[in-house]
Amino acid sequence: MAEELPGVLILDIGGTHGVLEDLAALLKKHFHLITMKEFLGNKEEMSKKIQSIFVFECRPTIDRELLESLPNLKVIGNSGVGVDHLDLKMISSFGVKVTNTPHAVADPTADIGMALMLASARRLVEGNVFNFLG
């Protein structure tokens, strides 16, 4: 019998606030994805399966009530650079670790910074406006 994949709580797949479908497909290779709707529909069974929460665009909201309902929770994985939206002290009081992706946007941020400096030095925006009006 194959070993059951660890359960990961996510808000949803797709839609306005859900995990992107391509990302969900990648996660499914390593985890059993449990949406918030599935969790709330069968809390007693699902709460035991969830070992991780995947936070995507600050969702789902991590509060004391949620943490208390997940006895086997080990880690909260935040998809993003900052963790300001998470109460780290409260989370750690449950013995739960928090991870994030600190270098995920380092290259794109540097690219935009360079583009802005070059545009400013060469007055590209002004030239484009002048060209458009002329």
TrEMBL record:
GO terms for molecular function: glyoxylate reductase (NADPH) activity; hydroxypyruvate reductase [NAD(P)H] activity; NAD binding. Residues 21-112 form the D-isomer specific 2-hydroxyacid dehydrogenase catalytic domain. The keyword Transcription regulation does not apply. GO terms for cellular component: cytosol. Keywords: Oxidoreductase. Pfam families: 2-Hacid_dh (PF00389). It comes from the Eukaryota. This is HPPR reductase. It comes from Brachypodius melanocephalos (black-headed bulbul). The gene is Hppr.
